[in-house]
Amino acid sequence: MEEGLTFKNSADETVLGNLINNIPIVNLPTLIRAAKVSPLIKDGRTIGPNDVTSSLTSSDNEKEKILAKEIKQKKTINNEPQSKSRINLSSKSDLLDINIISNSIAAKVTERTRKENIKKELEQRLNVITIENKKRQELIEKSEKVRSDWIQNKIESDKEIYKIAEEYIENEIRQDNKKLEKILNEKQRRLQKIALEAIVQRRKKFTSHYEKVCQSLKLEKNLVDCEEYNKNLKDLATDFEKLIQKIKSNNMGQPEILAAESLCSRIENLEAKLYNDISKRKQPTGTPDGVLLQKNCHNLESSQYSSHSPIQSTQRESSINTSDVPDSSEAPFLLISLETWNVYSGIITYFNDKVKALAPLENDPNMKKFLAACRRKINIPVAAICAVSPQHMQDKFDKLMSFILGSTKKQTATDVHVSEHPLAADYCIRYLAKKFIDVAGTEISSNSQAAFPFASIIIAIWNRIPDFGKMFIGQMYTESVFLVPFLFSRSNFLNDVHYKLAYGYYVTENASALEDFSAYNKRQAGIVRLFAAIMVSHGKRGDMIHPFPIENGWKWLSNLINIKPEMHDVIATIIVEFLQIAAFEMLSLYGKQFKKLLVLIQEKYLPKLNEIEDGKAASKGKLEQTLDLILKFNRIEKPQGVVPKDFW
């Protein structure tokens, strides 16, 4: 019988192969040994004292050890199932094949175990990561909730704080408005009181002169034309009564004071004229009063002064002599010439009527934003006016003209247009005139050269909008009566406050005092600089007419020195500033005639300025130096900064 295992068919062989592959490697030695001893065991025990295996030779034991050792050392793994049809366990080669199969089985088991262990470890790690992520997510959600709650609480808290702050600010604004209203009311009350006192004083003065004129007419009715004087008296009384009615309607301020003062001046002039006529009738050879150097009226309809200059009339030259300035004792009431008064009355009446017509627009609370926007449209180009280039001047002029005339369309929904209100164009013209005077009192008063670009723009606008010229002159006369010239006598006022208010001193913001002399003097100097600069400047290229030529400088200066001086230091400042800008042009135009006028100022008018020592002699000294430079050293410098003709 052949040793080994034989298979009846291939199916048995396959079953056995699968069976062997599924045997754990740890049981193979036992099976091998069992296979060896199986043929020898017929009956009996295999373990214990009577086991039949004890008859195995030592050589077999050695073989077993060698086989076991080879099994341990075998490393080749065969994953393919055995396809042999026969497995022989009796030989050494068969045992080696079994070892290979066993190693393959062991490797697979080990790999499977390793994979299972790795899978378990990965699952454990994944579980740990999942748990950690879940905890982290819960922590984030909790943190976000806490943060969201904090933000919400913060917003609510801030809302409360803002609400409290807004209430506090509104309360402060209300309190400030009440204080401001109280201050304004107090200021208005004081001004009303001052104005009332001034009006009362002027009424007494007017009544006194009125009674004197009436008494003189009764006594000297055979010497004068009483009908004419009675008519003038009636007109003056009617005008004063209208003024009183206007004051009773709580419309009382500086314009009313000026109107009352002008009425007093008119009746004083009427009284002086009456005394003069009476004197002539009684003394036919008597000497007439002083002669004015200029006697030509201003043409209000054309908004342009027209006067015959000395260079145009040889007869005018003979009228300039030292006897032309009336002595203060001869003409105590001559603070404005009748001709100048007529011009001034026409301009100031037109100006006041325009201002009064604008009151409904200015007092309308619904139009405050609109008016503020209009002012802003004017302020921006005016603030940028300078002669840096022709294009720059043209740009500022175009912006002002296009806005005032309404020739441009609205660029944005918030933009403004003068067509939005019937009075908007008049308001803008009035505001532009006032803005130029304000600039004169600030910027030009600190820099005389700045006057010329503004003067050039003013001339160009004046030529195209005549109403602007009237409003500009009216505004200038309101700010500086010296430029009329129109002076008030100190003796007609109760105190210095009333006297200074009549001359246009500003009241401080708290209505507690008037501006100091240096500020007032500087502001007046700036206004007269602009006044003179307009006369010597040119408008746009192609402008053929000058609306305010240098002839007005001659007229103004000759009228000024023919009335009794008041506010001596201010007048000295004004004459100096005027000469520094206009003297070069006037000398070129009038030549020797202008020098005669300066000699008249030096010899007759300057001593009158020095009669009163008011502690402010700086301007008087500067006037003396200016006259000396011109007359003794023949030095008149051309002013710096004049915009050349056809510059833009």
| CATH level-two architecture of the domain at 338-631 | Alpha Horseshoe
Q: Assign the structural class, choosing from mainly alpha, mainly beta, alpha/beta, alpha+beta, or little secondary structure.
A: mainly alpha
Order of helices and strands: HHHHHHEEHHHHHHHHHHHHHH
- Which stretches are poorly predicted, pLDDT < 50 over at least 5 residues? 1-8, 75-90, 283-334
Largest sheet: 2 strands, antiparallel
Helicity range: 55-70%
| Shape descriptor | elongated
Strand order of the largest sheet: 1-2
If helices are DSSP runs of H or I spanning 4 or more residues, what is the number of helices? 20
The tally of strands reads: 2
Instruction: Give me the Rg, rounded.
Output: 59 Å
CATH superfamily of the domain at 338-631, by name, is GLE1-like
N/C terminus separation: 141 Å
Q: At the third CATH level, what is the topology name of the domain at 338-631?
A: Serine Threonine Protein Phosphatase 5, Tetratricopeptide repeat
Percent of residues in beta strands: under 5%
Mean pLDDT: 77
Name of the CATH first level of the domain at 338-631: Mainly Alpha
